[in-house]
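User: My instructor asked us to take a sequence, write out its structure as tokens, and then describe one feature of it. I'm not sure where to start. Here is the sequence I was given:
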Amino acid sequence: MHCNPFTDPELARRLAATRDEMARRNLDLILLSAPEHVFYLTGLDHWGYFAPHVLMVPSQGDLVLVTRAMEHVVIRNQVRNATFIGHTDSQTAADVIIKHLAGKTTGQAIGIEALSAGLSYGMGTTLKEHIDADIWHDITGMLDEIRLVKSPEEQVFMRQAAHAADAGTQAAIEAIHDGAREADVAAECLAAMTRAGSTPPGFGPFLRPAHRMAEEHTSWGDGQHHEAVFLEVAGCVARYNAPMGRLVNIGGISDEDAQMAELCSRAFDATLTALKVGVTAKDVYNGWQAVVDDAGMPEYRRHHCGYLVGIGFPPSWTGGPRVTGLRHDSNLEMKAGMTFHLMSWFTETGRGNYFVSNTVLLNPDGAQVLNNTPDGPHIA
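Assistant: Let's start with the prediction itself. The structure tokens for your sequence are:
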């Protein structure tokens, strides 16, 4: 969050892969605006992405990065592979892009991320109306696909982020007791992750009492803990997010919840076994669902049993608004180098509650859990 974390060969590899895909799609120029993609190709790591950033990637020649002129110092310090054009606050990025491309794009095919969180409808419309192109293509998802498989350099960041997630989770577990303030548990978690090398993650952390467990995306409040505590946190290194989750019981665990914890672990292990190079996402989900069905819960379904993770900017650790999930209906092929937030989640079952999740790396010979915190049950 203070420097470009990528080597020149890594950036060159990514640009080559991008241009190969551009050639396959017969694109002369693409305009990238998702923060994850600008970062992926340039290494620009700062908090300025609340304002539009557009990276112009031609099939040949120099990359051009456009954003506010006030960011010139951080861009000079971090970006080594793109020319910078800044705009004043009385201009827009679109104004500068239109001027820069005037007379250069006649007859060209240009790609734009129509569903990018970094591109407003108004800006996209302005660009299309004022840039002379033969045809515009929606390239939403193009860079997402390229980013699915992590290079060895990226895998190092994922391992470091997973280590930080373990530190935060273990600190939170140690801080939980009957009457513990929700804010104090959160503070211990965040402090431990920071000390372990994490920067603020793209999402969360989510620490909440069990009666709000099924809320999915809410976090701590101003109360005290007197029941089980749901923990879902992500360490973040070089913007690579490694999430994990645990459930911590206070004082003891009911027989129902203990039985659900055992089922939860068995189902998680089944997904690890099913997660292999060459299978599909639905094969992995079906591995989890088969254990649930065998336990006499065929009516219990989840929208997925995990999803791919990596680079993520707020408000997401999934890498943008798109969740590439391990769903029952997905034919996405599993490839070595993919990283996942793999989970086994049981709430509102009528037979107890439990939850466990980890960051998992798919190696050529199988799936590897990158976290080391025991699954539990954890009793505070």
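For the description part of your assignment, you could build on this observation: The chain has ten helices and 14 strands. Try explaining in your own words what that tells you about the chain.
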